[in-house]
Amino acid sequence: MKQLFYFLIFIHSIICVGHTVSGTVTNSKGKPIAGANVMIDNSYDGCISGTKGEFSFETRLDGQQLLVVSFVGYETTYSSIDVSKNDVVTIAMKPSFNNLSSVEITAGNMNASSNNKTAVLTPMDIVTTAGAVGDVFGALQRLPGTSQNTSDGRLFVRGGQARESQIFIDGQRVFQPFLSTAGNTPTRGRYSPFLFKGVNFSTGGYDVEFGQALSAIVNLNSNDVAEKDELNVSVMSVGGGLAGTKAWKKSSLTFNSQYLNLAPYNEVISQRIDFTKPFELFSGEVIYRNQFKKGLLKTYIGGTFSDLGLFSKTAVTREGETIENKNANVYLNTTYKGKLGKGWKIRTGAAISYDKSRFRFNTFRNNVDITDGHLKVNLNKRVSNYIQWNMGAEQFLSSSDHSSAISAAWSDGTFRFGNHFAIKLGLRYGYFDAVNEHAIQPRASLAIKASKSSQFSLAYGEFAQLFNANRSLESLDISSEKATHYVANYTFKKNDRMLRTEIFRKKYDDLIRFDGMSALDSSNFTSDGFGKTSGAELFWRDKKSIKNLEYWVTYSFLENKRFSENFTSEATPSFGAKHNFSLVTKLWVEKWKTQIGTSWGASSGRTFTNPNESGFLNDKTNWTNALNLNLAYLISPQKILFVSASNVLGGNDVFGYRYANSPDPTGVFQREAIRPPAGQFFLVGFFWTFSEDKSKNILEQL
């Protein structure tokens, strides 16, 4: 019996003889990698490589097996080997893509979010910039590429008109992002900045996902699911507000309401025009967020109602102008982003907007009701650490008679060659139903890492946008307007200091021209307009050099000419100043528990047509500049007193001139300056936060 037992053991050892798997693990340059994990897939057979990269282990598996080698900082390597041959193998590992140190494509693009290493402005920056008064777009006007058009309030980017910049919330189009206004009274954005965690501001060469914008896009990224309950109360010299959040385990509901009335301000500060109805605003916003196992759902709804009336009498014409403007707007946005499996991710959403305006100019009345919609789906997959693929489609719809359906589809790929070089290639297709046009728009960008702290980036893109003529486009023999962008960028960032320089060139084609005073009363439209814009920009930000002080400096140089709309010749338009300069500072004084913010902006003169001289847009205004100041005093951790004042030095800016319709007896056309309704604006507010975290306040929302 004992002999039989030893015989069975001997037979088993022959049948189940082990095999040796051995070899060396190296990097792509042949240098050994110590500590790599080497094992056969779906087994417990393996070992750790030694100091010289060597490894050796026994396995009782047989035939073809999958050898898996992994190590931090390198891509996991899979090799098929025949363990029966006992071969010695060499495994060469490639460095893996590192999100923290890899190159990022930045040409024409300024991201601002909590997790973006090239962030230019964070949400706190936006709401604490002096002079912006809590307006997202007011703060963006302190960035390079924008013109400080304080008479308007909208975004004018790199020589483009305001309509050439489009606004999005979580990737869905916002059709009327600015409050309705009249005369020379500037407008502001409709949306509260504290609902957003970051801003993507792209001034050229932006992704194929975004169209219908010749100059720039602003994508506001809303907050994710809130973790704690909170209530904020505000009392201001021009109104008040109430905001709050209710948080559950995987969902939250946030609301914000506000009432503004500028009557008290108009009584204190002398106005250059007579407000028959001081600006009044009711606004409310609600956002619901729910975190599912594989995705996040967000639903946003916002509504505003504004009312404004004014009477202005010009010294030149001796005629009075009565203007009334009532506007109601509702915007609904629902988005979902999540995982689909097999590496695919999805972002999809729908937005609908209803806008109702009642406008009166003297005896002329115009009532406009518009409903717009936007549907979008975007799919993304990381094929590997070095390749990422993106594709999507969208549909725009409108009920107005001056627009129509726009369909688009796109695809792009990002290819990374290690951590030092990346390239993105994309193509966008669009169909404009109103003019029966198919548009193909290629986009390309690349980035090269020059050092650990710096990089170069280039971008190219073609863009198309329909002209909004406030009338039916089907009867017009026109095409979409075109723009081609070329952008070169250098970015340096180290130790809370950032330098960003950019040069660009933009070429316009097929710009709309018409023969009347405005598109509304014109009868002859053509697409033979053109234009060209070029310039250079500088941005420097420093949070490190001086304790408790951060500041940034921007400068933009712009050369801009175009022949479009009712221009009589090629000329520099009035909405793009040649020089724009900004200095923003924020100082925290610990002893006083006070944050002191300042911003100073200056712009060169803007063109206008002087009928006393020959030519079109033949003269310029003087430079404009303004110094703005705000103070936030922390009364207690949850109570803040806030004071803001614009143009504290009382600069007398001139935006242009209004001329008489006919010359005086001496043959001279008399004129008067066009100025803002008031030289200064001020705001005093008290803000109180109620939350479980007794140290939390809304300083970052001021």
Question: In short, what is this structure?
Answer:
The chain is mainly beta and 702 residues long.
Can you describe what's shown?
By secondary structure, the protein is mainly β. Helix content is 4%, strand content 54%. The strands form six sheets. It has a 22-stranded antiparallel β-barrel. The protein is globular, with a radius of gyration of 31 Å. The N and C termini lie far apart (92 Å). Residues 4-16 and 112-119 have low confidence and may be disordered.
Spatial shape = globular
If you average the pLDDT, what whole number results? Answer: 85
Structural class: mainly beta
Number of strands: 38
> What is Rg?
31 Å
Largest sheet: 22 strands, antiparallel, barrel
* Portion in strands: over 45%
Helix amount: under 10%
Low-confidence stretches: 4-16, 112-119
Number of helix segments?
4
Report how far apart the termini are: 92 Å
